Amino acid sequence: MDEWKPNPAVKPHKKRSWYLAWKYKLMNQRALRKLCQTGAVLFLLVTVIVNIKLILDTRRAAYEEEEESAQDYDDEMLNVEVPRHPVNNKKVLDVEVYSSRSKVYVAVDGTTVLEDEAREQGRGIHVIVLNQATGHVMAKRVFDTYSPHEDEAMVLFLNMVARGRILIFTIKDEGSFHLKETAKNVLKSLGSQVAPFLSWRDMWTFVGKKGGEVYGEKHAKSPALSTWGDPVLLKTEVHLTSVEDAECHWPDTELNRRRKRFCSKVEGYGSVCSCKDPTPIEFNPDPLKDNKVFDVPVAVIAGNRPNYLYRMLRSLLSAQGVNPQMITVFIDGYYEEPMDVVELFGLSGIQHTPISIKNARVSQHYKASLTATFNLFPDAKFAVVLEEDLDISVDFFSFLSQSIHLLEEDESLYCISAWNDQGYEHTAEDPSLLYRVETMPGLGWVLRKSLYKDELEPKWPTPEKLWDWDMWMRMPEQRKGRECIIPDISRSYHFGIVGLNMNGYFHEAYFKKHKFNTVPNVQLKNVESLRKENYETEIHRLLGEAEVLDHSENPCEDSFVPDTEGRVYVMFIKMEQEADFTTWTQLAKCLHIWDLDVRGNHKGLWRLFRKKNHFLVVGVPASPYSSKKPSSVTPIYMEPPAKEEGAVAVPAVAAAEQT
Amino acid sequence: MQKINRNVVLALLSLTSLVFLLFQLCYYKFYLSQKNGAAFSKVRGSQSGQDSTRWHVVRKFLGLISSHNIPVYLIDPLILGLVDKDIEQIRSSPGGPSPECKYFCAPRDFTTFALLDKAWKHEVGLFRTAEKMGFQWLKVINKDPRLDGMDDLSGMEIPLHYIFKLASHAIHLVVFYERSGNFLWHGPLRLKQHMDRKFVPFRKLHFGRYPGAYEKPELLLVSIDDLKVQIPKNPSSFLQEMSHSRFLECRYREARAFFQLYPDDASLDTVEFRKKAKSLLHLAALTLNNLGVKFWLSSGTCLGWYRQCNIIPHSKDVDLGIFIRDYKADIIPAFQKAGLPLKHKFGKVEDSLELSFQGEDDVKLDIFFFYEEHDHIWNGGTQAKSGKKFKYLFPKFTLCWTEFVELKVHVPCETLQYVEANYGPEWKVPVKTWDWKSSPSNVQDNGVWPVDEWDDVIQIY
Q: Does the entry feature the keyword Transcription regulation, yes or no (chain A) (predicted)?
């Protein structure tokens, strides 16, 4: 178009069609011809201009749009997320399983999914569960079947695994000593030929599908009692099934989608993943009337004990008056499975990069969790702090709702706790009764925001201090003489056996027989009497009506307390000064209550129940209530045991602090 | 031959140009109308003053959210602007059919609503219902800033914005979060790589270019254009607030790096000082906010925020800045009433004013007044014993909100320039000995007060 130039000098041709002839005629009319030409040129020019404008406009608009999204609305950080597991179209998995005295390992398609060569650890039968469609590891367990009862746990676990899953077994060191007939039969039913004959220090590996084929088994017999069987290495192939076959066909609801996601990732949670009648994951407990703690955030402190967390959250979400929106689970570490549990219940979870080690790690985790809780709920005046190894009573929130106003109004209170350290089956009786105590029990408690923000947070132990957070909170510098409110019958139950400061023996001795309230909607008695001054009046009234027990009898004997019900009794023990707990510790020991340190006291007074009678213990002369002692009564003194035993008891105290 | 060719060519060219021209005009018009919303295509509808598409979309949306019991409120600045003009009338006549569609029918691409995060349960059902109703929707999520300050927590990402699109209209739903300091916060709108950046013309959104901080609004249920919606009770003050709502997050990552280099002082003295400084700052903020005087963190307090997201332990005072145009004579009595006696007063309103109040136990509150010139801003200083005057120069700045020690306060948006002007390029290195007369890099001698004015411009109590 641009190169076109009018050339009037050129003559028209003669021999043309009618149209051209007509045109030729017109052309001859010079003026008209000129006009036409100019018109055409103008027209073309306009076209060109419009064209250019259009191009420019479109360009600019497009550019602006690009620029705007590039500058203002782009996430600064490029998303370099690569899909975590490339889609695996492979239908066959190569599985390698190794069993020996000092080392076990399992490799799936060349990836090591289990490797344990630590000394003095990991003895027994290691079990790995794989998803039969994806080959992902869904559960990893080790059962020390050299020790008693571990085989029962294994049977329980194997029964919970869904049909069709791939099971891998391997023994490290010794796995047969306490492997009983029942467990052997279960292994046999999975297709193992060797299991019924497994014996002392045999090495064994086995891969099979639950309720289906066997992919391989290898066994090495121990030649003599003093030696182990030769190491065995099993290499085999496992055929994957289709995803549909590996899943249950639950109705498509939001809840079931969560369930499906959970059940395709992990194993060992039993009926929550059963295809027929799975156990519910939404509980809808009755709401509480006039719930004063509905808007109080709940922080659940968790580590890597997903099965505990699962049990804990079930009981928490079943408690009346719970508000799931206020619950945040804080996981100490980047563990996947606890997060899966949190997501199963549709709660929010926060992971915490571990700082420091041991007790300090727990303590830093607590600090981060509490700070985050008050950041996330800036309106909250309180926070409920729970741990992953607690059962929560059905009336937990009802209990708090009835008592929380005290924490708000009474400056002399440090916390409200759901746990009574001295509330054992034989020493707690009245679900509607509350106490004031000078110790902080923890294990399900309410923290005041102002206490945390103004006092605790700024001077919280730093990571290099290996302190227990709860011991630190109990120190006089922090507690400043303030007290906690506790119920007679605990509203939480500590079921954790595995823990930082916890083992089976310890749990059995101090936690198993703890009383736990299961009655819903308990109406608390005379809550106002828990205020500082009122409580003194209440104690004086109680002491006034209490019958003095016969101090010539042995207080450890059952007969010390008469066979009555609903009476109030008092006894006086020797307590030279405020910190003299010699006699109390001995008494606590023989009463089989918490004796590792002093808990549950209020001004030298302990309150508990014996034979359904309220039983008061007053330390004389340190307690201000000593004046109630009739002059004829000599306070009971109990001798501490011999020195060596005392020395042993000290480390026990250090180990005793619950996490 | 040549002549005929030329004419034929000419005619053909003209013809094609004509066709092209027509096509281009059509295309151009189409393109413009698509870009400017209803600017062209809705000309027909505007005769009756109605763009029913928008009204219908808004009504559908309100139906959707009310069926899920989600309380949203209208924050669309254009509609609130219109509403504000008729606010008395709207307040006095709740309900009742309105004769014409005045507010929701102005043709626009968006209508903006706000949602309080804590007021809903993140139900997935909402989106499924929305899809059934024909909405397309987009969710913008990002990190939770309330956990950002904490070194090592990683929570789930939180939703910051939703966009529901139906036909040619879109609803922009901004999610507001409560933050420490008793205010509401909304996040910036940032698209991730995989997102459809043509979903709506994002640039035209009224919210999302920056994060914003707002007071918790009081709401009012009104009926406008036959639609029942919640609006801020006082639309004009909301709009006022919106124009100055830009929020700056503290630079937590840099603060962490700073503490790696210079570990925080964890002594009891520091804990005590920080506690006192924090409560002094809270008291000062309360007093000034009650008076309606705008202030910002200045000098050492500002440096503390910018460098370490905390109060600098060895600073020993709290520094605030106020524009002299915001000066009120009530400031001194108000502070005295709040229990903070005047410690000294230097300068006068016309020149180099500086107030200092005595807080609890030696913690001092310094208020510097800033004077605006055409190309810079300055504040003054006075040496009591010699009557010498100093001038501290700053480049021009605007004010942004931030969160500091559980308080919503202003800081200069151009914080780096502000801090550098005051402390020089080495501001990242903590300095314990600081002479306010010589250490600042922006200090200038400014003469001496005339002796006869000393009684007035140097008052020490």
A: no
In this complex, do A40 and B31 lie within 8 Å of one another by their Cβ atoms? no
Residues 165-224 (A) with a CB less than 8 A from some CB of B? none
pTM of the model: 0.80
- Contact at 8 Å (CB) between B166 and B57? yes
**Which residue on chain A is closest to B147 by alpha carbon?**
A372
Asked if the model's pLDDT at residue B38 lies above 60, the reply is no
Output A26-32 pairs: Cβ under 8 A, ≥24 positions apart.
A27/B3, A27/B7
A521 & A567 share domain: no
In the predicted structure, residue A387 carries a pLDDT above the cut 90: yes
B192 contacts on A by Cβ (under 8 Å): 75, 79
**Chain A hits for B146, Cβ within 8 Å:** 372, 375-376
Closest residue in A to B28 (Cα–Cα):
A54
Shared domain for A470 and A341, answered yes or no, is: yes
Task: Please identify, among A492, A527, A562, the residue that sits at the C-terminal boundary of a domain.
Answer: A527
In A, which residues are within 8 Å of B23 by CB distance?
none
Q: What is the 8-class DSSP label of residue A178?
A: T
Q: How many domains does chain A have?
A: 3
Q: Based on the fold, state whether residues A303 and A450 are members of the same structural domain.
A: yes
Sheet with A124-130, strands from edge to edge, namely: A137-143, A124-130, A166-172, A203-209, A214-220
This complex has an ipTM of: 0.79
The CATH number fitting domain B49-245, selected from 3.30.700, 3.30.460, 1.10.3470, 2.40.10: 3.30.460
| Domain ranges for chain B | 49-245, 252-460
- Out of A37-41, A98-102, A120-124, A654-658, pick the least confident: A654-658
Contact B31 A58 (CB under 8 A): yes
Confidence of residue A90 (pLDDT cuts 50, 70, 90): low
Structural domain containing residue A132: 92-245
